[in-house]
Design brief:
The protein has 279 residues and is of the alpha/beta class. It has ten helices and twelve strands.
């Protein structure tokens, strides 16, 4: 990818504990295709206040926020969009003349995917996880009319709080329950120490109708591979990260690519040696 930056080039970035190449390739590909004077770079930082202060001080236009920073960043911005305020979790910061406004495009992506995959609202579901992304997913489910849900989280404080805030049940473990939809919002199955593990056991997967894994590194996690083999409806982390990146792109630039441009950017991003960063 060629770039000829000048003093007017607008910088966008991401903050993640484990930066990946998907967002970098996705955004820069679209900047080039649409002839926009922007550049995108992925960063990690141990100094979150300093990093967010740098966004403001240096006039960086936008920042994608990945785990574990989605809740910690809230105190460092000036304004929360309703998409972030409702769930107290952010994944996008937009800088307009030093004013930092935060959004949650994860929420938007989840809502779109539940709709486009035509997931029946009457399904029972179990969501494993209790962090910032779990808030986005569970809130989209609640707002989408999915009423019979269970939050599975070993962290009782966080899990119970999330469940109670949305009208769902909480359990530390799934136990003998066999929900019709399984949703993983933990690092289980992600590249790393838990890469070969299933977020739900084989019997539970066999009993389900729909399996949704938010992990994007890789998009074909052991859970998704097993669910496909069982003939289940699947939703992958790649789908989530692509849609949320598109909505970030629009917030940063004010330009909405065509469907063809979007799909081409996703394929270009996937073709890189790196993988989507976990959200």
């Amino acid at each position: 990818m060629q770039m000829n930056p000048d003093r007017d080039t607008q910088l966008c970035m991401s903050l993640s504990a484990r930066p990946g190449n998907f967002g970098l390739r996705f955004h820069n590909h679209l900047y080039e295709q649409l002839n926009l004077n922007f550049y995108y770079k992925a960063f990690s930082s141990q100094d979150l206040p300093g990093a967010v202060g740098g966004i403001r001080a240096l006039g960086i236009r936008g920042c994608g926020v990945s785990m574990p920073f989605k809740e910690a960043c809230i105190a460092l911005v000036d304004e929360l969009d309703p998409s972030a305020a409702a769930i107290q979790s952010i994944n996008t910061i937009v800088n307009t003349n030093g004013h930092l406004k935060a959004y949650n495009t994860d929420y938007i992506a989840i809502a779109q995917l539940l709709d486009t995959h035509q997931v029946p609202k009457e399904l029972t579901f179990a969501l494993r996880g209790s962090g910032g992304m779990a808030k986005a997913v569970a809130s989209a489910l609640r707002d989408g009319g999915y009423k019979n849900g269970l939050i599975v989280a070993r962290n009782e404080r966080a899990g119970r709080a999330l469940a109670e805030s949305l009208g769902y049940r909480w359990q530390a473990e799934l136990g003998s329950e066999r929900p019709q939809m399984l949703i993983n919002v933990t690092p289980i199955g992600m590249n790393g120490p838990e890469a070969d593990q299933l977020a739900f056991d084989a019997e539970t997967i066999a009993a389900a109708e729909t399996v949704f894994d938010v992990v994007a590194v890789p998009s074909e996690t052991p859970l998704i591979v097993r669910a496909r083999a069982e003939g289940k409806r699947v939703i992958t982390g790649l789908e989530v990260i692509a849609i949320q990146a598109l909505e970030q792109f629009v917030l940063y630039t004010g330009v909405r690519p065509t469907d063809e441009q979007f799909h081409n950017a996703v394929e270009f991003a996937r073709s890189g040696h790196g993988h989507p960063a976990p959200q």
